Amino acid sequence: MSERTSRLIASGGLVVGSVLGMAGAFTPSVPVRGVLWGLDGITLVVAAALLVIHHFRKGNDVVAAGFLVYVVGQTLVLSSAAMDLAASGPVFGAGAGLWAASLFLLSAPRVASLWIRIVGVVAGALFLVVAIRLLMGQALTALSEPFPFNAYPLLVATLVGWAWERYRGAA
Length: 171
Description:
The chain is mainly α. It contains six helices and no strands. The longest helix is centred in the first third of the chain and has 28 residues, at 30-57.
């Protein structure tokens, strides 16, 4: 695969996955939400896997590890895309914890722009709180308000920021 193709698939995948994920969060139809979240998860896993390879080859090991951890977390969340929201709580909690860890790893090195790293840390902190609450047995779902529902825009902003960085070849 050419560098240009990889860059376009990775950056496009982060944007498309983010849009599908947000659309799923706002749709009232359970079957449509499942499809949107399923496609969102698949797209984000593919994009993040390409970013693992890209950053590993560039010697950005911490960033590569961050995207690898994101792949694992997103895969867990993807596995619950069509499940009942209440039943998927523990799986979502584990995925949210891995999202948090990945966001911290992605934000630590000075690879992305500062604003992306700051938003990533804030999103990571919010998802860490969600993960801890779910793993403690609290009755939260992927759509509980205020969190995790209000943390998604920060996750999306971080992913779209990384997409822009990758698209323009800066990261």
